[in-house]
Design a protein that fits this description.
two-stranded antiparallel ribbon; 8 strands; binds thiamine diphosphate
């Protein structure tokens, strides 16, 4: 039903919680248990702290290149809160909050950005694929995973995440087309954060919305306020039900904004105006969600203060542990692509090992 009322070709965007934290669409306000709402908020808060600290660690020369996700917390956690335990997340590389919500630990996430291969090994039962840097390829991985679940009759749904720029890559079309033709239970979540590094959204495509690309695949698409955690939950819930019931994929466009740089190697002041960033800071997903929880009597300023302090401690202690672990052992870099190292990889491994043993740098 939702998909019919919010036709992206007609330019309608789903919104429930406005920038000030007021409900603007009472009919669609989801009834989410208090405990779940608080878990969602606490995950977003931990993610926000961890993100800010990761930037600082990188600036201090203590962490490798890092891709921040400040501002995109609601798009990720709102979406993940609608999944069931059996479902899969196929991330790109800016999905720290989604990964945290799905059970990846902060230690694992930090290990990854620290250059340690163990940051891609998640605990048994955590249905999340590793960080994927190759833009677009995760849509094919997601389509394959969803199709396999369908063949095995497992009732699982796969959610693959991509950026606005990524929707101009071939694999976005190939993966979604395959999934649509075979009714694979795949939901593709586009986080339209307005930029692909320095390329603004309007230079990546002439399409009015990214959600309307669904029309060409013959599947439902919906554009959502990605800074509205409730709207994201509602849209993803319907998408997941649609996919699980055998009707095939759904495309969701979350309209959000990357408040930080693309990565720690980027200087966004070269390609975007301060005024634009300031305007989006007023639409911060954390502010409106906190207000919503306080208005409902589920949360207080004092509890928020205490949570901030706890998170500071958790983040600092986790990073200390990661620094003690250090970067990967040389062999680990070659060990995890295949179950057994292929002859070509073994040759490369032996090569670099002797190079380093002979004092190479
Ligand atoms: C196949 C491929 N080409 C180029 C790159 C370099 N690259 C890394 S991120 C990025 C932009 C991605 O933009 P978008 O899809 O909008 O996602 P965002 O970074 O905004 O989350 C590019 C071009 C890459 N990682 N993979």
């Amino acid at each position: 039903m939702l998909f019919k009322s919010y036709d992206p070709l007609k330019g309608k965007k789903l919104e429930i919680l406005d920038a000030k934290g007021n409900i603007t669409n009472t009919k669609l306000e989801p009834s989410i248990d208090k405990e779940i709402l608080l878990t969602m908020y606490k995950t977003m808060s931990l993610g926000r702290h961890a993100d800010i600290k990761a930037m600082q660690y990188q600036r201090q020369g203590r962490m490798l290149t890092y891709a921040p996700n400040r501002g995109q917390e609601a798009a990720q956690v709102g979406a993940m809160s609608a999944l069931s335990d059996v479902d899969w997340l196929v991330p790109a590389f800016r999905e720290m909050n989604a990964m945290l919500y799905r059970g990846v630990t902060l230690e694992q996430i930090y290990l990854y950005w620290y250059g340690n291969e163990w940051g891609s090994h998640f605990d048994e039962g955590v249905r999340v694929l590793p960080v994927n840097i190759i833009i677009g390829s995760q849509i094919n991985h997601g389509a394959g995973l969803a199709y396999a679940s369908k063949l095995l009759g497992k009732g699982e749904v796969t959610v693959a995440v991509i950026g606005d720029g990524g929707t101009s890559h071939g694999e976005f079309y190939e993966g979604l087309n395959f999934a649509a033709v075979y009714d694979a239970p795949l939901v593709v979540l586009i986080q339209n954060n307005h930029y692909a590094i320095s390329t603004p959204r309007h230079k990546a495509t002439k399409a009015k919305t990214l959600a309307q690309k669904a029309t060409a695949f013959g599947i439902p698409g919906i554009q959502v306020d990605g800074n509205d955690v409730l709207a994201m939950h509602v849209a993803m819930k319907e998408a997941v039900e649609h996919a699980r019931s055998g009707k095939g994929p759904v495309l969701i466009e979350a309209v959000t904004y990357r408040l930080g740089p693309h990565t720690t190697s980027d200087d966004p002041t070269i390609y975007r105006e301060d005024e634009e960033v300031k305007a989006w800071e007023l639409k911060d997903p954390m502010i409106r969600f906190k207000k919503y929880l306080i208005d409902k009597g589920y949360w207080s300023a004092e509890e928020d203060e205490a949570l901030d302090q706890d998170n500071q401690k958790v983040v600092t202690e986790t990073f200390k542990k990661v620094e003690t672990s250090g970067p990967s052992k040389l062999e680990d870099i070659f060990r995890f692509t295949y179950q057994d190292m292929t002859p070509a990889l073994r040759e490369q491994y032996e090569d670099i090992k002797s190079f380093l043993n002979e004092g190479g740098k």
